[in-house]
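Schema walkthrough. Field components (list of strings):
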Amino acid sequence: MNIVVCVKQVIDPESPPSIFKIDAATNKAEMRGVPPVIDPYGEFAVEAALKVKEAKGGKITVISLGVKLSREVVKKPLAMGADELILLDDEAYVRGDSWSTATALAAAIQKIGEYDLILCGREASDTNAGQTGPGIAEILGLPCVTIARKIDVTDGSARIERVTSDGYDVIEVPIPAVITVSNEIGEPRYPTIKGIMTAKKIEPVIWKPADISLDASKVGTAGQRTRLKKLFQPVYEGKCEFAEGDSAEEAAANLALKLRESKIL
Amino acid sequence: MAEYKGIAVYCEVKDEKMLPIAAEGLGIGRKLADELGQELAAVLVGSNAGNLAQQAIAHGADRAYVVDDPLLKDCQTDAYVSVMEKVIGQITPQVLIMGQTDSGRDLAPRLAFRLGVTVTMDCVDLAIDSESKRLLQTKPVYGGNAQAVFTSESNPQMVTIRTKAMTALEPDASRKGDITSIAADLQASDIRTKILDKVVEEVAGIKIEDAEVVVAGGRGIGSAEGFQQLEELAKMLKGAVGASRPPCDNGWLPDTLQVGLTGKIIAPELYFAIAISGSSQHMSGCSGSKTIIAINKDAEANIFRQARFGVVGDWKKVLPAFNEKVKELLAS
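Field assembly_structure (string):
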């Protein structure tokens, strides 16, 4: 079983909103003073891959696309138990949209050549789009199931539980297929000491656009089909009226009275 | 090259009914079409979808295109992508609006890539740029920490819209419009996936997306038992119980009760956030609430930036006393 997992390096989405800042001149966002992380949904995809590998055996190849990716960050899937790491790391990939990103990832997957499952997070925590996985499926002509909470692989097909708003659907799909993974798959495992030591010894393979037979005009900003016009932080008035009291109980009763006064209750 | 003109709204059909988000899409679609002086088309795809065309016209469409085929009974994306590719090829709209629903999340990106364009997912605002006449597509990013405005480089300019972010028009049954039928041209073998089962996880009482009052708890509630006190309040106010992600991930509540970006996006009259810090990803699911009331022991918690009323304190002490007082006030 050959499993490819696509992960992304992002600013830490678990950081408190108070340190989230936007540089208006460059339309770039940062979590001030906090290092980047592997996108949490990508980690769920790695976890899903490890579960399939445990059941069926095989090899997990992780691909990440970016510019000057932090080796420490992108090696985490290796420390969790993945086998190989391919980085599409080059200035040419800078500021792509989902079109140029999916194009490059699909080209890299084609170069890998052998794959049964391609896993992505259900969306990235920065763009919140969920477009790259289905996009890769379309480019490669593969079937696709999104928002998986369980993946069971049998001969030649995968049985997937897809999260819906009122439960889940059980879907069977022939493989190779693209599957995007949701948090319901279960908490990603922590890297073990042994895993971290192994990861240290694995050198990532670096592919520039020419290595995946892509012209520079197809990647990064040049390959975009969407333009970011503006990035801004919504402003909240912050007019919270606090109910107070000498004790928690008194404050609680005062809250109820306030709500009655405002005709909310 | 075909000329791309007009606004098209994909009106999602489920169980032979048009979803509410279809009317919301037609509402904003009508506004954009009027601004551009162009037509608004509704696209209905499904089994027995033909009966719904008039309903789409009543909600603002100038004309409707219907693809009706028994193979379209379940929303299988393989089938829907190929049908929609054909329909869009025929009507060549400048803008295509879809809904950010279970199936929209799957169908919209697949269709976009099939058409050679991208789609801006989960838009909360759509407007026409006064100079370029292109669609300005505003969507939350970074888990709701920021919003981004995008434009598409090519046509159709595709978007999905967030539930309840746009306003539907009052239906006008006297509106008239052409209804065009398009053949699906599908073979059963075109559909590579097979739906083996649809599991509905029933929740007793009012559905969270329909409730006027939602009492939600966060990680700080600590256990499934803790949620019983939230249920007590929800019951008194005829509301529903919800949660941020950690209680669902921990199995204290079913996943279907998760409020947030990747869970339910709701807009009740009254939203109680109890022991919820208010991460942006959670706020994405509830910031449309009319009034937010927060109980949290951390006075600096993000939730208080969007709450109208609040108490700083341990919910274990605050909530029982609050419930007691509410009971007393409701009885008087």
